[in-house]
Amino acid sequence: MKKKIIIFSIVILISLFFVLSLSRSTSKEESISNSDFIDQEEINIKNNRNNTYIGVPDYKINQHEINELGLVFNYPDFFVLKEIKVNEGQTGKKLVGYLDFSNKYRINFGGVTRDFSKSRGGSLNDTFGYKKLGSDYYLNFVWNDYKLSKNEFSLINDNSIIVSGKEIGFILSDDTVVAFTNTLDQNFPGIVFSVSSLENKILNKEEIVQIFKETIPLISFNQI
Questions:
Q1: Please, is 196 exposed, middle or buried when counting C-beta atoms within 10 Å of its C-beta (0-12, 13-18, 19+)?
Q2: Nearest to 205 by CA among 171, 140, 154, 170
Q3: CA 69 to chain centre
């Protein structure tokens, strides 16, 4: 009788040990799973913060042919291409246009061909982009080149820069923020971008810089 009681007790103890072990294992697995989930949420939040103005996870690239220049304009489909046209100069051609996105912002852009000239005046769009000579950067306009000091620009990528604090007559003031992108086309070498609000708000420098960082790398030109 005593042997039966001892054996029964041992079986009960073994069963309890097995149940407790299984419970701890399950709890540990759930803890690891929840931890991984929280980490992924934190990553997603950080990614969303990096894209403050675009706010879309996926997009397709639209293409618009500019036959007068022999170019294709590539831009994300969350942009709405409101206008793009080519104007004749006294010689050469000028491209101007603008894109809207998020129902809040407008990106204006423009540039000219290498042989562009006109009888009078000048504008921000009369640009060939920018160039780098040694460690120095220059803005290229039809009428002149302008050297940038180190505190007047920042790099977006290998082909684009943001310019602020540069004063060039009536073309740029020291509080203007614009971006310049170089294309790979010899005839149409560069383009300038500016940002405005569709809600008639004044955008501060930090907002414009962030918009450029998120959007300019997604825009490109290539030959047809």
A1: middle
A2: 154
A3: 25
